[in-house]
Amino acid sequence: MTTTAARDDTPPAPYWRLSGFYFFYFASLGAFLPYWSVYLKSLGFMPRQIGELIAIVVATKVISPNIWAWVADHTGKRMAIVRFGCLMAAVSFIGVFFGHSYFWIGGVMLVFSFFWNAALPQFEATTFNFLKHDTHRYSSIRLWGSIGFVATVAGMGPLLDYFGTQLLPPVLLALYLGIWLLSLTVPERAAGHVHITHEPLRQVLRRPEVAALLLVCFLMQTSHGPYYAFYTIYMEEHGYSRSWIGQLWALGVIAEIAVFLVMHKWVPRFGLRNLLLGALLLAAMRWLVIGSFPDHVVLMSAAQVLHAASFGVYHAVAINLIHLYFHGRNQGMGQGLYSSLSFGAGGAIGSLYSGYLWQSGGNITFIIAAGISAAALVIAWFSQIGKPRQLAT
Q1: Residue 54's closest CA among 75, 34, 37?
Q2: DSSP state at residue 361
Q3: N or C end of the chain, less CB within 10 A?
Q4: Fold of 14-392
Q5: Contacts for 4 with CB less than 8 Å, ≥ 6 apart
Q6: Would you list the domain boundaries of the chain?
Q7: What 3-state DSSP class applies to 326?
Q8: What tens digit of pLDDT does each residue of 313-355 get?
Q9: Measuring CA to CA, how many Å separate 54 from each of 88, 156, 157, 232, 361?
């Protein structure tokens, strides 16, 4: 009995394996998010088409994570799904080398993102199960993803300036293969035991604070649409070089890393609710500054530092709340819903409205984003999100 108990208490996945996966996963995002729109622009696509093609990538998050979450929650094979999704995403992405038409790129991105979006929500659930009662330490593992993002976003700018945007697809393919290789190092047992007893999902979703949280997450990512789809193009239009733009992207994520280093102290001290409200307020301020003062380097740098709040604090709080509200076999579905409604539906709508409004002025698009963040703040303020009584139920 003692031997069995000792084996059960042994950490099933070393820290570096979980951190390594996050490093490569977000390193690929550091190459994709800032520069994929620039690559599409080099192929001759108009802003409206760029917005639509990027929307395809994020729109699949509306459906894909929920499909894979259902499979994971009913089979308990989270890491098998992560590995399969990573491999098929890399294989699918190869298609970008064989055609450059609008419909071809759109089709490749549709297939690629269906598998790509299978991985992260289930890996997040795996990480939280690994941490068990130490979920406040999530940020210390997740910060390696931010480090990976900084490494590529800062490095790709000068490389693309020198070699051209055609370098981007092979770099992305190499990173996608790296993610798959790292996923092979994390054993299935790291995902933990899937509990049979759990609150019915329908009942969880009927709770007002859960519905409010999902709505706030949707609006928050909608407000990020102009940033992820057009920030690099926006800054180029105002005279910034790709190298300088890369440094601004990196500055934002460095600030995010700093937040992840202290979130395990901030959560007990300030509480999840107060941190969420502060993040929403600072996000609205960030988009307002970017839309109003693009030619002021100091203000643009300050706006990037606010990424620590608009993503770093917000994401760490949101994913902790999802973990608290969705128990047992609902964990995978909870992560899937968070991903699909925020990064999926919110990101897709954000990319679409950005593309359609861009010809009217990038400034206007970012100011609208500020209004969307402000709306999320109002909803969060008048809801029960993160209140201690709700978290205890």
Answers
A1: 37
A2: -
A3: N
A4: Growth Hormone; Chain: A; (1.20.1250)
A5: none
A6: 14-392
A7: coil
A8: 998 899 889 888 887 667 667 777 887 888 878 888 988 888 8
A9: 19, 19, 20, 14, 19
